[in-house]
Specification:
The protein is of the alpha/beta class. It has one domain: Metal-dependent hydrolases (TIM Barrel). 51% of the residues lie in helices and 14% in strands. The protein contains 17 helices and eight strands. The protein has an eight-stranded parallel beta sheet with strand order 1-2-3-4-5-6-7-8. Helix 11 links the parallel strand 6 and strand 7. Helix 5 packs parallel to helix 7, helix 10 packs parallel to helix 11 and helix 16 runs antiparallel to helix 17. The longest helix has 19 residues. The protein is globular.
Length: 346
């Protein structure tokens, strides 16, 4: 065991920044069992059996349908305001324990509200309040991003967008379009996202994960994306690579998630190194740490040891993540200065 833990400590010691982590994919197994007992959620009573329902297992088929199926069970757990407060607090605490200095945590108000029919406005307030309190308690900076899914109605997306605009001063910085891009187009959401951007929200869009490079172009040109969630299929089209470079678009890459959801067949063929070699702006992220059974330190270890990304390049990706965050300029400058000092970089 000592041989396994020593290398990981090297990555744990890095002061990290994460731009792409979903609250709904960050629930602790022990917390889920506790919620199930208290609220009568019908799930297996053992940690091992529950894990199979909500976490990707080594023997699972590595497909997007299997990956997304985990969230069907996860949605059963959001049974009270206390539960939403707790899982938000724990997600922030887990990031802090992994030496993440700044976390942009995205959450899907519609998913959190559905089990008990909570008003979207209340759900947003609960997450924001808990995230802010946890950030102070655990000594970490946290920004929030509201997420909407492609398979749900534009009317719901519009509600979330305007609530997000109203909560900007409370640390809700951005809007995200997520979900099944293989089967659902972004067209119904174009105007909503343009208006949200005009109202001051930052935009990050899931694209080029289960869909082609053309979806990355669509996200940049028609949705106004500043950052792309995943985007690993961008390399399939040189023109889209050129567009992303010209616009300075940043990619939030999540290697383990891409392997587990079938975007790449083996971890070793993940295109992260090629994206860097093409001059794209690339950051490293977890996506759903609990679903994938990982930490951000694990992802840095994979990037370095399996994908042969040099340590210096990984440090630069941390600085890039800070520069590409949705923080205000003054806070961003402060974060960058702190990170450079800790990594002995100028």
């Amino acid at each position: 065991m000592a041989d396994e833990t020593v290398p990981l400590n090297r990555y744990l010691a890095l002061p990290k920044v994460e731009l792409h982590r979903h609250l709904e994919g960050s629930l602790r197994l022990s917390t889920m069992l506790d919620i199930a007992r208290k609220h009568g959620v019908t799930v297996p009573v053992s940690m091992l059996n529950l894990s199979g329902l909500v976490q990707v297992q080594d023997k699972d088929p590595m497909t997007f349908s299997n990956f997304l199926d985990k969230f069907k069970t996860l949605r059963l757990f959001y049974r009270s305001p206390d539960v939403i407060h707790r899982v938000t607090r724990e997600a922030v605490e887990d990031a802090a324990k992994d030496n993440v200095h700044y976390l942009e945590l995205r959450f899907t108000p519609v998913a959190l509200s559905r089990a008990e029919g909570f008003p979207l406005h209340d759900v947003m307030d609960w997450v924001i309040t808990s995230a802010q309190d946890a950030a102070k308690t655990f000594g970490i900076k946290v920004g929030l991003i509201a997420s909407v899914n492609r398979h749900e109605s534009p009317e719901l997306a519009e509600q979330v967008a305007w609530l997000a605009v109203d909560h900007q001063k409370r640390g809700l910085f951005g809007l995200d379009l997520a979900g099944n891009e293989a089967e659902f187009k972004s067209n119904p959401f174009h105007d909503i996202f343009k208006e949200a951007k005009q109202s001051g929200l930052h935009l990050t869009i899931h694209a080029g994960e289960w869909g082609p490079a053309e979806n990355v172009r669509d996200a940049i040109e028609n949705l106004g994306a500043e950052r792309i969630g995943h985007g690993v299929r961008v390399l399939e089209d040189e023109a889209v690579v050129a567009l992303a470079k010209e616009r300075g678009v940043v990619f939030e890459v999540c290697p383990t998630s891409n392997f587990q959801s079938g975007v790449v067949t083996t971890m070793e063929e993940h295109p992260l190194p090629q994206m860097i070699a093409h001059g794209l702006k690339v950051t490293v992220n977890t996506d759903d740490p609990s679903v994938s059974r990982i930490t951000l330190s694990n992802e840095f270890q994979i990037a370095h040891e399996k994908l042969n990304v040099p340590m210096d390049a990984l440090k630069q990706s941390i600085l890039l993540a800070a520069e590409s965050s949705f923080l205000a300029d003054a806070e961003k400058a402060e974060l960058l200065q702190s990170l450079k000092k800790q990594m002995n970089l100028r």
